[in-house]
Design brief:
Elements lengths: L2 E18 L4 E14 L4 E6 L3 H11 L11 H12 L7 H21 L3 H5 L6 E7 L9 H15 L3 E5 L4 H15 L4 E5 L6 H11 L4 E5 L7 H10 L4 E3 L5 H10 L5 E2 L8 H13 L4 E2 L7 H12 L14 E5 L4 H5 L7 E2 L2 E3 L12 H7 L2
Parallel strand pairs: 4-5, 4-11, 5-6, 6-7, 7-8, 8-9, 9-10
Antiparallel strand pairs: 1-2, 2-3, 4-13, 12-13
The structure holds magnesium ion.
Length: 375
């Protein structure tokens, strides 16, 4: 079997309602995906997390290096691609491009062997995964706090047992919003906060002190990702567990986060950290420190099923007879591409999503829809 074509796409859908977080606003969704075609007709799909048009060009730039290769040899292909960008792309968009290609190769591998990717990774440790709702972004609404409370209660009514909300506006508004949302959903529902690295060390510490009695499951990206020592100090000084990793790349980046004891929860994005091949290596590193992995998951159903397969295979830490739940991030903000690009339904039952039992990623891509929204 040989790779004969690698085709990157940018998908675009405008949003009906704009929203923003601590860094910038969203008025549309742009997602980069890749289709790899083999000489025997097998097709694999992958997705990248990153600026979609730039990722597309990056894939176009590196793809010539893998035409004619055996897609089952994904470690070899990973290494060829990484060596090609090593001198100027050890993090960022080129790694996202490699990630998308790597995910597509695993999809092909699964279809070839007629097995789910989780089985090829070594097997599924669980039958179901607990999704947490990501939402509660900011808007220009004059009743933002009330809107956030209503949105949060909506997620509880949908069956979510864990919800993540944005912080990073300013400390005063963040404290008010978090307290009101906590009040609205009660203490039986888990609540996480995410600043998207909006705060300085001092600000993050101040906010965390004001929220320590709110039973926050984790404080995500309190500080800018470059400041490993500040993360380490912050983690030592707050009782709220610290999460980060969506801006980190490759095992080398995550090794720094782990060695400096920066985090309680490691959140690589499989579609940008180096793909499933590298995510598996990062999970081995993480296991040496006993740090739990809950990947950052964003984008379309392709990325979502990539995460489903990977999380299925995550070794429970610590091991015991009655396992703790494994979590998956389930973005609930407006995103027509998320469900429409795949024909499969993402089904949540009693607060859980079943692991994939179909070959490869376990998805069927709707190419009619793809052709309608590609730019
Ligand atoms: Mg985040």
């Amino acid at each position: 079997m040989k790779i004969i074509e690698v085709i990157p796409f940018v998908l675009n859908e405008d949003l009906e309602k704009e929203f923003f977080f601590s860094q910038w606003e969203y008025s549309n969704r742009k997602i980069s995906i890749v289709k790899i075609i083999c000489d025997n007709g097998l097709v694999g799909w992958g997705e990248a997390y990153g600026p979609a048009p730039v990722v597309k060009e990056s894939i176009n730039y590196i793809k010539k290096n893998i035409i004619g290769l055996n897609p089952l040899e994904s470690d070899l292909i990973w290494s060829i691609l990484f060596r090609r960008v090593h001198d100027y792309g050890r993090s960022g968009v080129f790694v996202s491009a490699i990630s998308a290609i790597d995910v597509a190769l695993w999809d092909i591998k699964g279809k070839y062997h007629k097995l789910p990717i989780s089985t090829l990774l070594g097997g599924s440790f669980r039958e179901k995964i607990r999704p947490y709702a990501t939402g509660l972004y900011f808007s220009d609404s004059k009743t933002l706090t009330k809107d956030l409370c209503e949105e949060a209660v909506g997620y509880v009514n949908d069956g979510f047992k864990s919800i993540k909300m944005k912080v990073g506006l300013n400390i005063e508004d963040d404290v008010k919003n978090v307290k009101e949302v906590r009040d609205a959903i009660g203490f039986d529902v888990e609540l996480m906060i995410d600043a998207n690295h909006a705060y300085s060390y001092d600000e993050a510490l101040k906010l965390s002190k004001k929220l320590e009695n709110m039973e926050i499951k984790w404080f995500e990206e309190p500080i800018s990702p470059e400041f490993y020592d500040q993360y380490s100090d912050f983690k030592a000084k707050t009782s709220i567990p610290v999460a980060a990793g969506e801006c980190e790349y490759l095992r080398y980046g995550f090794q720094k986060l782990l060695d400096k004891n920066c985090i309680d929860f490691l959140q690589m994005d499989i579609c940008s950290c180096g793909g499933l091949t590298e995510a598996k290596r990062i999970s081995s590193l993480s296991s040496t420190k006993g740090v739990k992995i809950i990947p950052h998951t964003w984008g379309s159903g392709i990325a979502f099923f990539t995460a489903i397969n990977f999380i299925s295979n995550l070794e429970p830490i610590p091991g015991r007879l009655y396992q703790d739940d494994a979590y998956i991030e389930y973005d609930r903000t407006e995103n027509k591409i998320r469900e429409n690009i795949i024909k499969n339904d993402i089904v949540m039952k009693d607060g859980y999503i079943s692991v994939n039992i179909k070959p490869g990623l376990g998805i069927d891509v709707d190419e009619t829809y793809l052709n309608k929204i590609k730019i």
